[in-house]
Amino acid sequence: MNGVLTFLQNILSEPAFLMGLIAFVGLVALRTPSHKVLTGTLGPILGYLMLAAGATVIQQNLAPLATLIDQGFGITGVVPNNEAVTSVAQKILGVETMSILIVGLVLNILFARFTRFKYIFLTGHHSFFMACLLSAVLGAIGFKGMALVAVGGFILGAWSAISPAIGQKYTLKVTDGDEIAMGHFGSLGYYLSAWIGSKVGKNSPSTEELHISEKWSFLRNTTISTGLVMVVFYLIAVVACLINNPKTVTELAAGKNPFIFAIVGGLTFAVGVAIVYAGVRMILADLIPAFQGIAMKLIPNAVPAVDCAVFFPYAPTAVILGFAFSFLGGLLGMFVLGAIGGVLIVPGMVPHFFCGATAGIFGNATGGRRGAILGSFVNGLFLAFLPATLLPVLGKLGFANTTFGDFDFGVFGILLGNVGNSIGQIGVYLIVAVLVVVLLLPSVITKGNTALNNISEE
């Protein structure tokens, strides 16, 4: 039984297979010729594998940069990392996590079919992370066995359908009406950034309209501008580390000149971003047409909710600004936590790049440059304070040395943990009841079979 669960978990938590499966079902529903079913199924799979390969290059080049900053500036503390805390949790809660994942994915599809929340969450690895968080927090409250799986699976399935709908009006602004949704559990941070942009960004020009003179026109090439920015980051970190801890630079450079190592690291990072962009284009080219089959035949008006990196090509300049100002927000949050005697949350380069960049994109969509800068900066502050507040909840199961990094994980973990610790399991059931009402209420109030909030604002 465990072997079957592991196999299903590996399939369902792998976004490439999940996207390919959705595309396959959609193309078959459209009665597409077999050769086009084959290419249309492989396209999203290969595109996501390309995106994942680019993300791996990015993460591999962020890791030494984080070490350089740590050693060069003498910063030590807890670095939020979804993969790390998940690997720890799996040793204790492996079966529970897999069971919650499967129940959550099935319920997400059922909610999409029978409610107005017609969003199908396709970012399988984030579903897996959320299943892990839920198994940890609910287990700490005292849930066990079928109750743990049922409650955790319901919350996962419900939030997978609800979270894309909450900010879909902002997502449509980002994509200029392309019918995709946000399928990433940093979503509340992105919507907050968009809301901030709507309040502060009146008459602020878009990040994509930055005026660049002819002699600087090469900066319009996203790959080149990203590479130059990251080279500067690397060089500053290397210089600081050479002053304070030269041994670390020597080990990381592995025989290379430290400055050459910094330049290659920054430029390789830009290559990773370019691979992500290429993968995204491949995903959208095949997934969206195939998804029409699901929307028309199986789940009328369904909308695919996709990974945050899919939105990067819509505002490449906002990606860089969002990353930079989210990281600055994380640094400020770290210093504030240190000043008040809290747990020191060292800014993780991976969450600040992917979540900060996406916050910048959403802030730009509603508030131009001011929205991108302020929205991503506030997102960075939350990426410091939420993990610090989440740590005590996870610490009961021995996860005190690591924590989840993204916005929604922090909100749900803190909410469930504090409610459960205050009024027990009945508090969690009340949260479940609220989610049931949220799922059903739109169908009662308004007639229609369209996806909630999936209407462009002119």
TrEMBL record:
User: Any idea what this protein is called?
Assistant: Ascorbate-specific PTS system EIIC component
How does it associate, per the subunit comment? Homodimer.
Which Pfam families does UniProt cross-reference here? EIIC-GAT (PF03611)
Stretches that traverse the bilayer: 12-30, 37-58, 92-112, 119-141, 147-166, 224-246, 258-280, 301-325, 371-394, 426-445
Q: How does it sit in the membrane?
A: Multi-pass membrane protein
Q: Report the gene name.
A: sgaT1
InterPro entries, per this entry?
Answer: Ascorbate-PTS_EIIC, PTS_sugar-sp_permease
State the organism named in the record.
Streptococcus milleri
Q: What are its GO cellular component terms?
A: plasma membrane
Q: Which family does it belong to?
A: Belongs to the UlaA family.
Give the UniProt subcellular location, in the record's own words.
Cell membrane
Q: Which residues form the signal peptide?
A: none
Gene Ontology BP terms: phosphoenolpyruvate-dependent sugar phosphotransferase system
